[in-house]
């Protein structure tokens, strides 16, 4: 009884603190340069952030509150900006990803792939994690979409966890696999210039404003050291944080033997497995050729359109492999995501994020600091700025030109510094709303917002240090 009362008191305290901070930000005099709309959106963002981390109520209920309050207090111009969030392309993508996951599960194709991977290349959970690191890096070359890669990997990871009987919310191994999935997606993305449009935009800014001639190869050669260093150190930190000491070698050996037997018992590919495999390969092909479809076909099929097409193929009579009622779609996650993206969009569009970053730079007084230290500060700002921004493109648009201008004023060669900072744009790994990839992995239920925040902040620090090392040593050999 006492524990229940203590939990209830803690929940009420969280709600009161979050509400008071939001009210203070809402009612205080509007700071110079900040609009009233931006002030309101920032107040709601702070409220939501506290509520999502502490979870006094389910996170989807906090999102419902946001969707109601955004138009009610005037944090967005019209109601559709908030209520229309449920129609965002990310929501459709998530629904399609859940259908694809369900199809792979129902046909046993996902299980077959998972069993093949684990029995041939991994005998321990750590080796399974290493395999997924490698897969993320390989796919980055062929699938020019962070979200598409996550949509491919998540279903296979879920089946592996099912085979190992790792339950959501209870499994340390499952928690680590999903959290590292988010991080390795970002680290691998930083290596390939075309893996996200924000990086292509960054190169455009650098080449235009500095006269540099950075291309695909220069980007890759410059980015590889920092990505590998960050991946390696973050991997071992994850093992330290989430190692399950109760897992014995004997248990793992027994599990491997069971997995081999299960693979043998499955026999040859069934008709439905072949159908699911065909749909899977079509999806992979369309995602991998996304940058070339316009030139080849005269039109472009987006990542979201490809996912919805695949969902349709999975459900169509005669062609499909599951029925709608068999699709395990987590609608509470859809509601949470809608609220998260609605508040993120409000903060971005109102100018609240831009105002915050600009005042942070001014407050630090970067023009009064040693140039080498300025470079370090800018690298850290680039990495950690995703805590405020929900869009890689917005961060690129604001930060990279500003970094180039500041570097020129301080007598720093702008191209190397801006390029190294650009490598950090993809590192959006601390909260679900910060990336579609984060949201997809979060939907598996294996980790909490607090888990992602803690591990993400540690890995962001590692990434920042790796970028600093690359800036002061390696990057000048590349450009």
Automatic annotation (TrEMBL):
GO cellular component term of the entry, any: plasma membrane
A GO term for molecular function: organic anion transmembrane transporter activity
Membrane topology: Multi-pass membrane protein
Subcellular location: Membrane
A GO biological-process term: carboxylic acid transmembrane transport
Principal location listed in the UniProt entry: membrane
Swiss-Prot/TrEMBL keywords: Membrane, Transmembrane, Transmembrane helix
Entry-linked Pfam families: Na_sulph_symp (PF00939)
Membrane-traversing stretches: 12-31, 59-76, 82-103, 124-142, 186-207, 219-242, 276-295, 307-324, 331-348, 368-389, 410-433, 453-474
Signal peptide annotation: none
Protein family per UniProt: Belongs to the SLC13A/DASS transporter (TC 2.A.47) family. NADC subfamily. Belongs to the SLC13A/DASS transporter (TC 2.A.47) family. DIT1 subfamily.
Protein name: Sodium-dependent dicarboxylate transporter SdcS
Organism: Aerococcus christensenii
